[in-house]
Amino acid sequence: MSNATGSDEQALSYFPRWTLKTSGVIMPEERLSWGQTIVSGLQHCVAMSGSTIIAPLLMGFDPNVAVLFSGVGTLIFFVIVAGRVPSYLGSSFAFIAVVLAATGYAGHGPNPNLSVALGGIVAAGVLYGVIALVVMWSGIGWVERLMPPAVTGAVVAAIGLNLAPVAVKAVSANAFETWIGLATVLIIGVVAVAAPGLWRRLPIILGAIGGYFLYLLFANGLGFGKPIDFMQLSAAPWFGLPNFTTPTFHADAIFLIAPVAVILVAENLGHIKAVGAMTGRSLDGYLGRALFADSLATIVAACGGGTGVTTYAENIGVMAATKVYSTLLFAFAATVSVLLGFSPKFGALILSIPGPVIGGLSIVLFGLIAAMAGRIWVENKVDFANPANLITVAVALTAGAGDLTLKFGAFTIGGIGTATFGAIILYQILTSPIARRAK
């Protein structure tokens, strides 16, 4: 009996062996030096932190709890996909509209009906898990027929375009904040294109640091804007328990929130396709596992007071900019997030980052999300001479960018949901046998 070596050994082991590589494209089963891994992992923490904290704040959740469970969820994902799919799981924006509708949250301070929202998110996670198990049992074929590359690319683009107003609003309060946001964008671009060696792999974290210090200089030092207030940061303890909350289950909230699972499936599929396109290899064989991992992470998060989670497009944007896809980065970033969840000092530091700096980071990352749709279409040779593809994409992009909201009684679907369901349904109608016969 011969011993497996090399690629055979990789195939037989549950986790990759992560061979060292320090230049060029770093694939999922490769790794940087440990020092570079730590710094690049911290960059992913920075990339996820804005949205992972903004989303819970918009819903009245505790951001420290959300950060902690984003780390827990990412580690769950890492284990279930055997360390072979590079992804970070952060707070999902798909839940915001339905959580606000289910809880009547006024938008300031803690959500008094947080437990009700958590029950609905648990239900969404359970429905999500059922879909994942069906995919694992029956294969990816029916999902691909339901959401082919034309549709998944449209969903990915719609997500980026739907989030664009959030980024623009963050840099639009006044001329000073606009220039700080644009300066942050410029720093990111210059670092990504012209920085030497290792630094070129760190555009997001260096952009955040550069933007922060620029704001500190011109606002705190020269008085051009509202100064950063460090009182909360200095008063916050280094270590402390998060404010955990348990869910309660109410039928109306469950029926309102649970259907978000379908949006999470589309988001995850789009992200898997996007990472596959960037790495030049198909990750479809891990889709069922990825869906199940995301569903389990959502359930675990909601059981402790965290938001529903999803594979994060912001971190896919970082991978697109750095060409580093090593899954070890995400295991490290997740571990850091778990530790930071127990640090009120970290929450205060994140909250001290000026809005226009977060806005500048978001402009780049959300734009990269939308741009990745183009790569999905190119890699899969989507034919835009085909009216079914062209109209499906056109409608989805407009619905997502314009945040087209549909209401069915108490049930509301925001722009991402409308673009997702609209693209799926419209494509099926336009490619149905009836449409083909008419043609």
UniProtKB/TrEMBL annotation:
The keyword Ribonucleoprotein is assigned to this record: no
Pfam families for this protein: Xan_ur_permease
Topological relation to the membrane, as annotated: Multi-pass membrane protein
An example molecular function term from Gene Ontology annotations: xanthine transmembrane transporter activity
PROSITE patterns the UniProt entry points to: XANTH_URACIL_PERMASE (PS01116)
InterPro entries recorded: NCS2, Xan_ur_permease
Gene Ontology CC terms, in alphabetical order: plasma membrane
TM spans (from-to): 65-82, 88-107, 114-140, 146-167, 179-198, 204-223, 244-266, 286-312, 324-342, 348-372, 408-430
Keywords carried by this UniProt record: Cell membrane, Membrane, Transmembrane, Transmembrane helix, Transport
Cellular localisation: Cell membrane
Assigned protein family: Belongs to the nucleobase:cation symporter-2 (NCS2) (TC 2.A.40) family.
Name this protein carries in UniProt: Pyrimidine utilization transport protein G
Annotated organism of origin: Bradyrhizobium rifense
